[in-house]
């Protein structure tokens, strides 16, 4: 009910960035009954009603993928993105497809001057997470 109004749409991308970048549960927490990060992010993605905000939320989810460096970055930052796609394949295949489409499109469109770095970051993200 908190994310139903159009004025709250901008908060969704902020929440996703916070979940990906700050909330890194321990193994004990992962084995407990808490709601997984990917489930919360998946639900947040379903609350978006505008195309602009959909792009912003996807960017919030995958930003860490663009410049991922396994030497200095935590896999916990990129884990929610792959888990959202994996779990959405069965119940929400359109969401999984739009997320993958976003990643592919962003390799060229995010920042053309940094295209090589973005491609490399996404490539390393997939190699480490799969």
Q: Write the H/E string, N to C.
A: HHHHHHH
Rg, please? Answer: 15 Å
Q: What value does the average pLDDT take?
A: 92
The end-to-end distance, rounded to whole angstroms, is 35 Å
Work out the number of β strands.
0
Describe the global form: globular
Spans where pLDDT lies below 50 across 5 or more residues: none
Q: How many H/I helical runs? A: 7
Fraction in helix: over 70%
Classification by helices and strands? mainly alpha
Q: Main beta sheet, described?
A: none
**Percent of sequence in beta strands:** under 5%
Structure characterization notes:
It is built from seven helices and no strands. The protein is mainly alpha-helical and about 130 residues long. The radius of gyration is 15 Å and the shape is globular. The mean pLDDT is about 90.
């Amino acid at each position: 009910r908190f994310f139903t109004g159009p004025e709250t749409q901008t908060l969704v991308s902020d929440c996703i960035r916070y979940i990906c970048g700050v909330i890194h549960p321990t193994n004990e927490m992962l084995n407990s009954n808490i709601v997984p990060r990917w489930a919360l992010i998946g639900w947040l993605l379903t609350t978006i009603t505008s195309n602009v905000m959909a792009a912003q939320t996807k960017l919030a989810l995958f930003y860490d993928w663009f410049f991922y460096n396994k030497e200095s970055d935590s896999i916990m930052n990129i884990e929610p993105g792959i888990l959202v796609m994996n779990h959405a394949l069965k119940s929400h295949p359109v969401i999984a497809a739009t997320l993958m489409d976003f990643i592919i499109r962003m390799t060229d469109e995010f920042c053309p001057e940094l295209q090589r770095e973005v491609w490399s970051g996404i490539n390393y993200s997939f190699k480490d997470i799969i």
